[in-house]
Specification:
Structural class: alpha/beta
CATH architecture of the largest domain: 3-Layer(aba) Sandwich
Mean pLDDT: 90
Radius of gyration: 18 Å
CATH topology of the largest domain: Rossmann fold
Number of strands: 13
Number of domains: 2
Helix content: 40-55%
Distance between the termini: 27 Å
Largest sheet: 5 strands, parallel
CATH class of the largest domain: Alpha Beta
Oligomer: single chain
Number of helices: 8
Strand content: 15-25%
Shape: elongated
Strand order of the largest sheet: 2-1-3-6-7
């Protein structure tokens, strides 16, 4: 999945982004509200992690504006404010959750997973399709009785395709979900991950079909 991290503390932003990337997520970092708006204008995101105190404004104003525009991307607020009234305030403005600084990275990851589950942008714990049994929580794929481990990007790619079987995804759409702006990606890289995942699907009725000139889709039969 692709996350937008809005945080002006460079050290914290680097640490959070590195931790989320270990889980296979693509993470774009913005150090100001202006940068965050530029990112949102250029790409779709599955989740936004939002600091409150930013150099060019208050994160709560950004949150309020996003909800007023009807945008429902899940937002987790990261705040050093510990008063109950402050936490209630951000939830009332439309935040899906909050985490208080300093926070434990494991807690942040758990809150991200919980928010994505509630908002329906993450797969269920176990999903079945065309002879596959996919468990994203332990990164495994079962074909019949055979258990196959997935690498991070293979897992995220399967999540994308399995969330909408028969839908055609272009290379650009897949790239936007798998990689951040900081990563240099070629068409060949997408083809490599598609090829690896195809091998993991062998023996099931599921297959990744190439739609020439358009993209890829997960289909069965």
């Amino acid at each position: 999945m692709r996350f937008l991290l809005v945080e002006d503390n460079a050290d914290l932003a680097h640490s959070v982004a590195d931790r989320l990337r270990l889980d296979g997520h693509a993470v774009d970092s913005a150090g100001s509200l202006a940068e965050a708006r530029d990112c949102l204008a250029a790409a779709p995101y599955d989740l936004i992690l939002l600091d409150i105190s930013l150099p060019d404004g208050d994160g709560r104003d950004f949150l309020k504006a996003e909800r007023r525009l009807g945008r429902d991307t899940p937002i987790i607020v990261m705040t050093a404010r510990i008063e109950v009234s402050d936490r209630i305030d951000v939830l009332d403005l439309g935040a899906d959750d909050y985490v208080t600084k300093p926070f434990d990275f494991a807690e942040l990851e758990a809150r991200c997973r919980a928010v994505l589950r509630r908002r329906g942008t993450a797969l269920q714990t176990v999903q079945h399709y065309a002879g596959l049994t996919f468990n994203p929580l332990n990164a495994t794929l079962s074909v019949g009785a055979e258990l196959r481990e997935l690498r991070n990007r293979e897992l995220r790619l399967l999540e994308i395709l399995l969330a909408a079987p028969e839908r055609i995804f272009s290379k650009d759409q897949i790239c936007d979900r798998l990689f951040s702006y900081a990563e240099s990606v070629t068409d060949n890289a997408i083809e490599v991950y598609i090829g690896r995942l195809r091998k993991k699907l062998e023996g099931s009725d599921a297959r990744i079909e190439t739609v020439r000139g358009i993209g890829y889709r997960l289909t069965s039969g």
